[in-house]
Amino acid sequence: MLTLVLLVILAAYIFEFINGFHDTANSIATVVATKVLSPGQAVMLAAFMNLIGALTGTAVAKTIASGLIDTEVVQVTSQVILCALMGGIIWNLITWWKGLPSSSSHALIGGLCGAALAAAHNDWAALIWSQAAGDWTQNKGILWKVVLPMISSPIAGFMLGIVVMVALWGLITLLARMGGWLGRMARPHFVNKFFGKAQILSAAYMGYAHGHNDAQKTMGIIALTLFGAEASGALDDLPGWLAFLHPGSGGDQDIAMWIVITCAIVMALGTASGGWKIIKTLGHKMVKLHPINGFAAETSSATILTVAAHFGMPVSTTHSISTAIMGVGFAKNPRALKITVIERILWAWVLTIPAAGGIAYGLLRLLESVGWA
Questions:
Q1: How confident is the model at residue 133, as a pLDDT?
Q2: Which end of the chain is more exposed for a tag (fewer CB within 10 A), N or C?
Q3: CA-CA distance, 132 to 143, in Å (whole number)?
Q4: Cα 203 from Cα 289, distance rounded (Å)
Q5: CA–CA gap between residue 286 and residue 327 (Å, rounded)
Q6: Confidence band (pLDDT; 50, 70, 90) for 287?
Q7: Tens digit of pLDDT for each residue in 140-186?
Q8: What distances in angstroms separate CA 290 from CA 7, 23, 332, one per listed residue?
Q9: Which residue ranges make up each domain of the chain?
Q10: What is the DSSP code string of 325-373?
Q11: Residue 251 binned pLDDT confidence (cut-offs 50, 70, 90)
Q12: Angle subtended by helix axes 188-232 and 317-332, to nearest 10
């Protein structure tokens, strides 16, 4: 059993690494597309800021560890977590191969839900729908922590992208009307030069927000694995050098620091490996971007991710940045958006949770059929 627990933790780190290179594009696509930074410079900036962001909070990790699956309905075994991770990993690799910016967050959540559903023999009560004591107002469960953010965050990204872009244009127009040296600041050359510098800050903010939200999801998976292993007795006879694996009692406790640090480092390494296919889709194919557009998109998306992480909501980095780019492009010129590319992205979004969940569901059923679960 201990070997299986360690295998699950290894799979979690593999998912975190893949999340890093899969979602690198989300945090640096715009800064590369606008030629403010080279791909190499952008990747290193994103990796460093991912590391910083991942070390600054655990609210999302606690949601994954104790807020999605009702452990009184389904036993969260290492096999369940392993199948959940494999569902997310396989779907991430498929979408990376196709160059589609699908959500690693939703791939992981889909895998977790699919595996839990299989383990509970199709009992949907395994997924907490804020049902405790009949109270549907509790801020926990797949309804509050996944479904509502999944719908609201893309809308927020699109609308905030429009608002920020319009506000920046309003400021530039105001400067132009004031004339003099202020008017010169509104000239295209100065605007491009200024936002070329400012976009480095917005890209850093985006990298921080990505690490702050996304890295925590794998922290939660590892914590959930250890909670389940502790409950099943798999950690009863740990050798002294593995004593740190004991999570203690209760699913709402703080995430262990070794989990936070290792996940942060692994995501940063994954980010440093890059994800150029998705960068091409986000940064070039959806809409032509200038530095001011990239600044607006990154600032909008990073703000949504940071606020969501504060409330423990595992929001998709992909959704927020993609829709922010769409919003900026719409504000710029509605006809500039390339609808065929957007349709492909939307289909990837719609399919991610059921696809990853279906893979995880099938894998656990397969393990059960051969007596391994």
A1: 39
A2: N
A3: 13
A4: 14
A5: 11
A6: low
A7: 566 776 777 878 888 899 999 999 999 999 999 999 988 888 888 88
A8: 45, 21, 10
A9: 2-369
A10: HHHHHHHH-GGGS-HHHHHHHHHHHHHHHHHHHHHHHHHHHHHHHTT--
A11: very low
A12: 160
